Each structure stands twice: as structure tokens, then as C-alpha cells.
């Protein structure tokens, strides 16, 4: 049944490729790599066809979809799930729509892409770092369809005060023009940092969606104050709903999926199968 389901999904995906220009054709291992028009610009999607819920991955702030390469093969074998990675606007090979670059608008673009790919039934979210913001918005907008989420050392709103936001981006100010020409996605993150923080304070992760919140032993912060507030933000997030669980990952830095790939695969697979 799973094989038939995967083939049907592939058929739907193949039909949808008229919307965007394929980068790589359908291959023997059920992978589609394509650009999809999401309304004025195109986003790069990589889809491994499988069963539902589809696992949608959200990259961190400066990353493209390749950040997940180290766990996808094993996760696909373990779950048989449809795996969806993508580049947000301005990252990887995705185009930028600088007129509609708010966090919510970017989530709407993701939704448009999933709709074009005929992947609308149900979702399971995996988010790293800044990707936590996008998964929060997506889960809020689609709470009935989101069956669960695994957050990997992800952003929580409480940590990002105005002071913290200004301090963080101030260190990159000398590189602003370089980003504008070479890393346009990062440039717009810098430009809209305060706006993004304000936007997220109006949005909360829906309490109906179960969450595993993975916390790195060494998050990406230098001061003891930042480390303490980061850990406290995760602790308080989990305490807000009984279906949330905090897991401390020993021996890991911020990129837990690279430092501890087997542990991440195990946690995602277990929660996915229990859902």
C-alpha cells in the first residue's frame, strides 16, 4: 500500500511540474527537485515521495535545504514519509520577492508551493534555529493539519527581545553590503530583524500540536546571560502545554542534526510513528 501511495503522489507531483521549471527529473529513488512559482517568484523544492503526514523541514536563518542532507536517507528508510525540503526566498536557488518578505508572507509562499505540489493533506514539522519561527507560523495557520513537530535548537520568541535582536545583527553590520550582493536572503533577515521580532510576538505555537523541543548542550551564544535566557526560553515553551517535551542533547552544538544525526533521526522517527 505504501508503494502504491508513493507512486500516486509522484504522479501528482509530475503533473504539477508545469508550474515550475524542473531542475532534476524524477529519479528511481522517488526524488523530485524543482522550482515552483509561488506567486511572483519561484521557490526551490526537493521532494521524496512517500506516505503522509509529509515531513516539512525548515532551515535555519543562513542555510539552504542542503543542511538536511546528512539525515534524509536514513529518515526516509525509517519512516517511509514524504520528505520536503526547500529554500526560502533569497536562499539557495530560490528567487527573492523583496516586496513580500515578512515571515508570514514567506509561510504563505510555502503553502502555495505545497498546494502546487498537491501536498495538502497532513504535515509533520521539523525546524532548526530560525526555522522555528516559520514552523510556528505554519502550525498556527494549519493547526488542524499539523500532526506534530520536532524543533532543533529552535528560536523561541521570549529570547528575542529588542535588545537581543539589535545586538545580534549589529555584529554583522560591516558585512551588510556584502550580504546584499552575495547573500541576499541574509541581507533581508538583517533589514527586517526588528519587524520579524515584533511579528512573532503576536503569534504562538498552537497548544494542540505535540512538540519535541531539542536543546543543544552548547547553543550559539557567547555570554552566560544569553545562554541562560536561551535555555529558559526553551524550558518555558515546553511548560506551556502538556504535549511538549524538552530533550537535552549532550555533546552537541547548535547544528544538532550534524553533530548527532543518529539521535535526531531516532527522535523524529519515534515521534512520527507514534503520531
UniProtKB/TrEMBL annotation:
Keywords from the named record: Hydrolase
Q: Name one GO cellular component term.
A: membrane
* AB hydrolase-1 domain span: 53-176
Annotated GO molecular function terms are:
hydrolase activity
What is the name attached to this protein's record? Alpha/beta hydrolase
Origin organism lineage: Bacteria, Pseudomonadati, Bacteroidota, Cytophagia, Cytophagales
